[in-house]
Recover the amino acids of this structure.
């Protein structure tokens, strides 16, 4: 029977003198488990005119087991047993773990539910599938990730330095369990921001010409021992200031700089002003501190 259904166990008998009719129940918690000790069923039995009946209604998984009736008088006794199998949705998955946190992906794993809800002896598959969802921890709505028959799944394309909640429900042919969910999981990279670039150099090319014909060639170095320790550098940002000023100005907002060199247009710079430059590097964990200033260069003839 499926959970929530109803039925009536009816046992007809003929006996004289009048017999005693006693029902008992031995619970079975799982299809492969041993029967428990005999106890009185929670359902009320009835005896009328050579018929005893046990109505079972709104059955739950806890009602599964062997129901027996003993009909006895001074001449003997007869025992009849009926096995009640309750097919139900599974209980929730257990032991949820989010591991191998790279900052952009997490291995989400769990163990199977305590109660699978299925019975292979009655033609119902004993396999489960798992519905996986996720949400940002500051949001209430979840989104679907996958449905799998495995006990783990790799969740990728996560955003660094975000907090997520991962959840999983077990599903069988009867229905789906409630979702079990993790505590908030913060995605953090295994490394931090890069170190600052070094040896920033500026060269005016050509050195003596009209400012409209000149560019500034910038080069720098990223410490190689820090690249492997802090993750690959993805971008560089350049700032400049007049040598006699303390205010730095970003001049790379309109450019994507991925290599340790850059040719800076001079159309927005002034002639005969000495400029210094500094460079900031960036990886997936964040930005470095700015480099030390470059040598000062001056545009014009």
């Amino acid at each position: 029977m499926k959970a929530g259904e109803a039925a009536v166990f009816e046992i007809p008998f003929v006996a004289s003198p009048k017999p005693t009719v006693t029902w008992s129940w031995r619970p079975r918690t799982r299809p492969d488990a041993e029967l428990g000790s005999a106890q009185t069923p929670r359902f009320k039995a009835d005896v009328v005119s050579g018929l005893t009946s046990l109505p079972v209604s709104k059955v739950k998984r806890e009602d599964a087991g062997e129901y027996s009736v003993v009909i006895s008088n001074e001449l003997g006794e007869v025992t009849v047993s009926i096995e009640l199998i309750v097919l139900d949705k599974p209980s929730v998955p257990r032991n949820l773990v989010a591991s191998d946190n790279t900052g952009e992906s997490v291995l989400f794993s769990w163990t199977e539910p305590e109660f699978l809800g299925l019975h292979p002896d009655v033609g119902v598959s004993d396999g489960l599938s798992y519905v996986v969802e996720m949400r940002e921890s500051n949001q209430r709505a979840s989104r679907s990730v996958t449905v799998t028959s495995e006990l783990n799944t790799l969740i990728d394309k996560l955003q660094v330095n975000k907090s997520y909640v991962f959840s999983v429900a077990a599903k069988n042919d009867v229905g789906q369990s409630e979702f079990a969910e993790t505590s908030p999981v913060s995605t953090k990279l295994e490394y931090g921001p890069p170190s600052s670039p070094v040896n920033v150099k500026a060269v005016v090319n050509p050195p003596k010409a009209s400012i409209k014909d000149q560019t500034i060639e910038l080069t720098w170095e990223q410490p190689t021992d820090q690249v492997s320790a802090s993750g690959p550098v993805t971008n560089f940002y350049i700032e400049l200031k007049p040598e006699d000023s303390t205010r730095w100005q970003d001049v790379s907002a309109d450019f994507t700089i991925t290599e340790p060199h850059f040719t800076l247009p001079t159309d927005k710079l002034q002639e005969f002003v000495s400029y210094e430059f500094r460079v900031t590097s960036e990886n997936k964990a964040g930005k470095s501190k700015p480099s030390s200033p470059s040598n000062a260069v001056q545009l014009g003839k």
User: Anything to note?
Assistant: Residues 94-186 form a domain with the Immunoglobulin-like fold (CATH 2.60.40.10). The radius of gyration is 38 Å. The chain is about 0% helix and 45% strand.
